[in-house]
Amino acid sequence: MFRPLLLSLLGAVLLLAADAPPQKSALDKPTLEAYVRHLYVLRPELTVKVLDPKPSELLPGFLEVRVRISQGNASQDLALLVSKDGKRILQGNVYDVNNNPFKPELDKLKTQFQPALGTSGAPVVLVVFSDLQCPHCKEEANMLRQNLIAAYPKEVRLYFKDYPIESLHPWARPAAIAGRCVFKQQPDDFWGFHDYVFGHQETISLDTLKNNVMEWAKGVKDLDALQLGQCMDTKATDAEVEAEIAEARTLDINGTPTLFINGRRIPNSIDWQNLKLIIDSEIEYQKTAKNAGDDCGCEVKLPVPDLAPAAPAISPIKKK
User: Fold this and answer.
1) What angle do CA 66, 81, 243 make, to 5 degrees?
2) Can you tell me the distance from the alpha carbon of 128 to that of 259, in angstroms, rounded to the nearest whole number?
3) Is the dihedral of CA 107, 75, 39, 66 positive or negative?
4) Cα–Cα dist 281/283, whole Å
5) What is the largest CA-CA distance in the chain?
6) 55 CB contacts (<8 Å, ≥6 apart)?
7) What is the pLDDT along the chain (320 residues), one digit of tens a residue?
8) Mapping DSSP to helix (H, G, I), strand (E, B) and coil, where does residue 136 land?
9) Which among 256, 283, 253 is positioned nearest to 270, based on CA atoms?
10) How far is CA 67 from CA 4, 25, 47, 74, in A?
11) Which domains does the chain carry?
């Protein structure tokens, strides 16, 4: 009597299970793409690419999944944490009280072989990602050049990194290539190039960029203009610029200028008074913390005595 009843109940349960919708998983790329599109109301013309998951370093039991949203040359990465069963998605900041709160950013910032100003080993390190054609970058660059080293001759170190936004600024990447050419030949002359390009930003175009750079190079004593022109023509430093762009993407940088102060992200332009408040706070904090700055793994010395190849034995070309 009970056996037929038990079988009937089991059959009903199986029938209900068969009718139940299958469980979705955020680890299924099409599922996560559809979910993200709906969550952020992404337009159809935007491309969404879900990258492969990797174990989260900060939250055991979760996987880090990056979602790249792009249109043309512009892209933005969205970092998500997904539970290993694929049921839960987290977005936010996770901190380890035993480490610097900005350690994930510090670990990704690579300053070796980058243009720098200030004192090696300084307690406060600033890294700016900039676009040489960006008007807001020009304003921040002027502010940094006028105030930073004058106010903190021994306490800060500033590094410059290129992040040309090609979809908005057509000559930003060629200018970044030129800047790397200058730095590779004469590292100390990079800042003169930096100041010149920002100072002439309004009059430079894609067609006139090289002529402008060559005009500037005429007044630089130790710079080989012929070698510089060849470097620009062959795009010899384009791979270096591409590496800086890739680094910016791993840091989820969505615009320029973006400034990091001992790993602390400043995503938009900042005025001098507010920047000074942060620097003063960092100087005081680092007296006891000692967990950021040039002792955080940032390499500031150039171990290679001369990065530039020997200049060819050719008479200099007179420029018109």
Assistant:
1) 30
2) 4
3) negative
4) 6
5) 108
6) 63, 64
7) 445 544 455 555 455 555 556 788 999 999 999 999 999 899 999 999 999 999 988 788 899 999 988 887 667 788 899 999 999 999 877 787 777 888 888 889 999 889 999 998 899 999 999 999 999 999 999 999 999 999 999 999 999 999 999 989 999 999 999 999 999 999 999 999 999 999 999 999 999 999 999 999 999 988 999 999 999 999 999 999 999 999 999 998 988 999 999 999 998 889 999 999 999 999 998 888 776 655 443 433 333 333 333 333 323 333 33
8) helix
9) 256
10) 52, 15, 10, 14
11) 34-94 (3.10.450), 103-295 (3.40.30.10)
Residues linked to residue 81 through DSSP beta bridges, in sequence order: 64, 90
Token digits of residue 67: 């979602």
User: How far is it, in rounded angstroms, from Cα 177 to Cα 173?
Assistant: 6
* Rounded Cα distance, 21 and 31, in Å: 14
Total residues belonging to the chain: 320
User: Could you tell me if 283 and 124 are in contact, meaning their C-beta atoms sit under 8 angstroms apart?
Assistant: yes
Can you name the residues that pair with 125 across neighbouring β-strands?
Answer: 157
Residue with tokens 């967990």: 291
Burial-class residue 50 by CB neighbours within 10 Å (0-12, 13-18, 19+).
Answer: buried
For residue 113, what are its two tokens? 């072989």
Amino acid letter for position 236: A
Asked whether 105 and 263 are in contact (CB, 8 A), the reply is: yes
How far is 197 from 162, CA to CA, in rounded Å? Answer: 13
Q: Could you tell me the CA-to-CA distances from 180 to 32, 55, 85, 120, 187 in Å, in that order? A: 39, 35, 46, 21, 9
For residue 277, give both structure tokens: 């408040």
Query: What dihedral do alpha carbons 230, 234, 236, 240 form, nearest 10°?
Result: 130
Are 65 and 80 a contacting pair, CB within 8 Å? Answer: yes
Whole-number Å distance between alpha carbons of 157 and 204: 29
